[in-house]
């Protein structure tokens, strides 16, 4: 491309565009360059002075009589090769964008003043809540702050040690996600592992008003904490790495949910991560399957879930290590309670992004990142065998495959990718078709227009997991209430007894649930001691 007008080369923006084009940069589009060139030419025309009448023409240039060799027209590369000084401002801030308006010394002064109101200027973990509020942090950051300032070793935190720790944190970390990871993570670590959350969650169990009834049953605090940790990693750790980074914290709602604990006394209203009712449902489901109560379930135990609704082939894939952590499952053929939390949420909410990834890993037998027609046929064969045993004529695989391809609409013919399943918003129907017979038959009996309406509805409806947990909790509490009332009525006179009101039964719910879990966890504790 030749540019003869030297005035074009004087525009620094245009020169930058030409330099990028010459270097072969993909992000400089020709259309963008044409627009820039056109706007520059229009500006040149507007700035060009108009000729006045009577103005003499410039004299013609005189050339020497002897012919001279014409100098070659300079190529644009001669201009482009000149070094360009382009000042690109910094755009990547892994520790958060620094706030130039923030006054750190003023914050540290307020902290020192708050410590003066504490006896001996030494704060324990409970008084650390006041310090957390002075720092502008949620209440339940107090346990991580206490540990980061060295309070775990001495039992208290002095004003000097805390101010030194907080000054260093303010200078190096500039947003909530970066500060939170710095407080919880191990020294010189920039990510959070599962055990890093234990002190924070133990403080929630000890101090949250919605969990006061757990003080009488400390034997299963660890079960609740394990459940919450697995739910956090299930939702936040989108990379499946087992380590939560500051970027993943920023993209999640975890810090906002943690701040809600301070405002909401009923912890069951916070369905994300911390709900006690959800923990109760998960733990009871695991207890029903764990026949020997050793905190592990076998492949045969897991196959009994929901009356053997899941196929044997998909359960084999779960125990192959495709979606489980550690080598216990592969070597010993046993699934831990932590892995069961992932299975249950994925089974009951197949619309969840993590659930879609969970089952995709299971169905991708060869691990090539796509679901081939052979893999789909492999899982559908068992579904056909089970339907024939029930007296139901299965749909031929070729016809079913046409339905599934119309449902998913994959970008490439003959293979289905994870992106295709996430985009189609019908992943739950797709997965149930190949390995969950009960739900597959339910989908077949539903009105297709109702299914499409559910997909198009983007309102604030509870997710499938929240609906399942609420229904199961009501069923479990009703069963416990009926059993408790039956045991009480066997020792009382039926003629003088009045029926209990629904409010009284509701008030007894937590006591019934706690007593039931205490009995179960007591047995598990004896197993752990052995």
TrEMBL record:
Tagged with keyword Calcium: yes
Domain called EF-hand: residue spans:
351-386
Quote the PROSITE patterns the UniProt record gives: EF_HAND_1, EF_HAND_2
State a single Pfam family of this protein: P2R3B_EF-hand
For bias type Pro residues, the affected ranges are: 55-70
InterPro entries, alphabetized: EF-hand-dom_pair, EF-hand_13, EF_Hand_1_Ca_BS, EF_hand_dom, P2R3A_B_D_EF-hand
The protein's organism comes out as Ceratotherium simum simum (Southern white rhinoceros)
- Specify the domain of life of the species encoding this protein: Eukaryota
Q: What is this protein called?
A: Serine/threonine-protein phosphatase 2A regulatory subunit B'' subunit alpha isoform X2
Alphabetized, the UniProt keywords read: Calcium, Metal-binding
**Region Disordered: start and end of each range?**
39-70, 481-511
